[in-house]
Batch of 2 targets.
Target 1
Amino acid sequence: MSILAIQLLNSLFYASVLFLIAAGLSLIFGVMRIVNLAHGSLFAIGAYISAWLVGRAIGLGVPVIWLLLLIPVAALAVALIGIVIEPLLLRPFYRRAEEYQLLVTFGLLLILEDLMRLVWGGLPLTADTVMDAMPVVHIGGLVYPGYNILVIGIGIAAAVALWVVIYGTKFGVLLRATSQDRRMAAALGLNVGLVYVAAFAIGCFMAGLGGAIVVPSHAAVLGMGVEALVLAFVVVVVGGLGSLKGALVGALIVSFVRTAGIQFFPEVELAVLYLIAAVVLIARPTGLFGTA
Amino acid sequence: MKAAAIALPRLQTRFWPYAGAALVVVLASVPGMVGLYQTQLLTYGLIMAIAALGFNLLLGYTGLLSFGHSAYFGLGAYTVAFLLQWLGIHSMELYILLGLPVAAIISALFGYICVRHTRIFFGILTLALSQVLYSLALKFFWVTGGSDGLRVPRPTLLAGMIDFAGSGGFPRFIRSYYYYVLGIFVLSTAIMWVIVHSPFGKALQAIRDNETRARFLGLRIRRFRWAAFLLSGTFTGLAGILWVPLNGLTTPDVLYWPFSGEIVFLTLLGGFRNFSGPIVGGIAFTFLKTYAVASTEYWQLLLGTVLVVLILLLPTGIVGALSQVAKRLLAAKEIAR
Amino acid sequence: MSLLRTVELRKRFGALNACDGVDFAVERGEFLSLVGSNGAGKTTLVNLITAHLEPDSGRILFEDRDITGLSVSQRIKAGIARSFQLVNLFDGLSVFDNVALAIFARDGKTAKIATLAANDGDVRHEARAVLAEFGLAAKGELLAGELAQGERKLLDVAVAYALRPKLLFLDEPTSGVSSAEKAQIMDTVSSVVRSGAVTAVVIEHDMDVVFRYSDRIVMMHEGAFLADGPPDAIRANEAVTSILLGIS
């Protein structure tokens, strides 16, 4: 029984991370109609920056509880990277064919992956101190890291925050207007360029945040971004590209299937996920809640 | 531009057979002129050219961008490895004869699933399906060797007449295999050329340019796309079959989705809007990547930058840029007359 | 027997009644103009007949055969073709190939994968003939995307014509071109169509063109037929002219 509870919590942990990545990807697609192949790499950068900051902070003797504040800092750093990337690499391609957009983000992926290697080297970068510093929780007779619960909380908070921003603020109205009809929005005097940068920055923030919260639990390694991107794709395919609700539901579904898969069918666990994506795409091409 | 359009002579159709023949002669004389390493490299280049030709049938001629072509390449490679492991087959001809149908069948299956969708969903679906194969190759390690992969030693060529055992085997293999691949490359190019210039090929291009109008000519869009997908996957599968004996080893990397990205990259490098672009791209990329890997640890950074610069400055690829230059020179000559 | 007949054809788009129980008959050999203000239902009617849209109710009979359930390709096989208001060409193919493709498609030759398109003498001959009829023979080697707008409109019609349909729908063949070119285009189109014994239904807004070239004019208004007759009768119809003066 307690094992079940732990599996449940693990799923929710994983779902939180997946949701952040997928929501970012979906937001960027919904507003800008771009599929950012480098999105997973931004998630990885968030993990690396976070782990690096934690390492430096510990070296400076910062009390461990303050280390948690580094998480949003890392996410912000990734958002800043996004603000640099958008005008440089993406803007020249908005009027071009979709194929070129995909390719330029693929090029960006290659660049970012090697930049991570350049800056942080080939060895994994950890931040377990953060995780170890948090109290443990007792479930049944078993011990469970409190940090994971925190992550679940962050995931929920992020979902709510995103929902509020998109549906409750004036900026959210701008985002939705631009995503529905870019030309109309521009004709109405909206600064579409600014909306794009903002949307991209938010998307990057989410990816970076996902990386920052996962790294105390899973070390930052090269190639994690490339792996994460495919999973994010599965999530948005299942949930629907361009939908916040879809990213949430998709993340939950993918997460639970993955946990169950690892438990019962470890060999085919990954394959099952991709197959689910394929099946959903076949049955309902726009995903469960998709708009595209 | 429209009003002043000059009907340029269609020199292409008369030019290419001669250029092609000259090229084959040049390629045939390569092993005599350069070292073993370069010959091997060019062999890889020709193999990737075949993969690119197949891929571009789908992209350049049918307008569908697949991000999952690593699946067919990897299928070709792994089929060879399985044929060796389970049936003890060493003959290159049998590898091709038995491997092509496998690539064809899976392409037909995946294609049937994928062509119901277009554009971004098509791309994502192809990627997802290739990842299915990747994860199977990775996880079922007792069958596929997992991340270590499977070894494939030198095969026998020409129905077992030529083998490469014993001393001096390696150089002989490299030289002979080069000619073998060159022969298949010429054959594949000729076949693809006919396909693309056939009524079927014209129909594909029509569907690419204007799906609505094509439908209003009575064409069954999905069926054509499926056929193109099938052919495309089979060609790329052939490349995988040819690749693995040269590489000596197949690993899941060749099914991993960034490899699909490389295939897209190299097609774009050469130019996807003409026939010869993918060939140029396949060969050029092989040399580019080898040079990059040799010269820096951060070759991905180099290649990524090249890709971005390429898309920004030379969207029509090497061949596209060259042909634009040629057109301008010809037009200038016409006006000067 | 009418070539084409619709029976109580209906199509609504939400609150808009685009086709309100339309009984439309087209006789063999006619050159018919379909006129009416924007939103009157002309394009919807054509879309329904060419299977671009599905009707809410009603039937479509072609040569007394019920084609309501037939798909686009089936209707084309039966002998119905159309051109488009917004030019729909294969811009990446040559002008010649655009027409040739229509012929390949018509003759069921598009599955041929092992022969060169350039080697089919019959198709090439016919394509050249069609291009000549439409005055585009000299531009054969240009890409369709490189033509001037007027030529593109002609090519759009030529491609549909190359299907050798029995009934040809032309959706605003002179829209978007200068008035000088309009006459040129309509001269060509009407002479080719008549000499080829093709029945044509033309959606047009330019009333000069309509009165000059049509055998019969049908006027639609809010999804229904308002008037139907030869040009003289329409001109004399006061109810019609008052609306027309509002339009033209």
Target 2
Amino acid sequence: MRSKSLILILIIALFSGCSYNSEDDLTEQVIIDNFVTYETNIKPIIDNNCIVCHNNPPVNGAPMSLTTFSNVVEAVENRNLIGRISATDGSVMPAGGPRLPQSLIDLVIQWVEEGLMEN
Amino acid sequence: MKHYLTLLLFLISISVIAQDDLLDEIDTNDLGNNYATAAFKGLKVVNFESTKLVAKKELILIIAHRFGSIENGFDSFFGLDDAVTLINFVYGISDSFNVGVSRSSFQKIYEASAKYRLVRQKESGFPFTIVGYNSVMINSSLEEGNLPKLEFSDRLSYTFQLLISRKVNSNFSLEIAPTFFHDNFVFFDNQHNSQYAIGLGGRHKLSKRWSINVDYGWHLNRADNSPFKNPLSIGFDLETGGHVFQMHFTNAQAMNTNGFLGQATGDWGDGDIYFGFNLSRVF
């Protein structure tokens, strides 16, 4: 009995095998033709990662919504959005981690530096 | 090269299992047992697994929390706002073989584990208790939207661990835990996926119900400039009937072996540490 279940676990482990990937291996180069804009570049990131809780109305204890352009701009200006997604400790957003890939964090920072363009 | 190394470790763990059966057969005929009892009272030292196992046909529920960093003070109420939780069921198929399943809100990790005792410490006999621990983890928080080339195998991680403990005297126990762990996906690009660590743990009894526990994970091949640190944890165990209540401070927020060894971000020097507790209940 004991050896059976252990062997089962090992088979699962062997079957799935080991791979050797890191962030670089699984992300693609983000190509920006002109400027980073909310509609094209930022909204998909927010929708993928933040809306689960920062919906309208917000759920799971999230303090504000991030569903619209003005919501996100407000969070960047007054709620340290950049600080929270860049954090490397337990306070990182999305809550519970993992941190977003650095390429996406850099994209949001670039968007802020270029002046928070909507489209 | 690295593939051979991984294969070797698989083979070692398989041969270790074979030994387990043999030793068990010997044990069944053993009448006069003078085993050293309860080197550790909890199933964990703090973060590391201890050499204690769940008894046959017993089911234990462990609920563990790690708060966020205490350094943010009242802003996050010393980490309460950023807490993560682990729910873990462990079942004793026999006194020396346990299986467990868990789910952690730290990166939404599912885990299946097996823990099996190979040798028991005996008075005027073998001086150590040796326990094997293997687990497979699935990280369900990785998003294809963020990582376009993500495949299912990237979500998997494995732990292979030997736990060797010695009850030095009735108040004091020590543990050493050579560990190999592999993450199919690592967050830090320069970090090798296959990682090695040595865990060190100890427990000292303070009174009938209280003990102080410490453990430390010494990572042997962490990448240069890695943002992750070695985990050090200090805590107290309180025993109350069917419960063991463990309270501690640690610089690792993750509770799975690969998490606290590979992704501890806190720093004792900066006061960037987390309060946590493990609560276990027998059914």
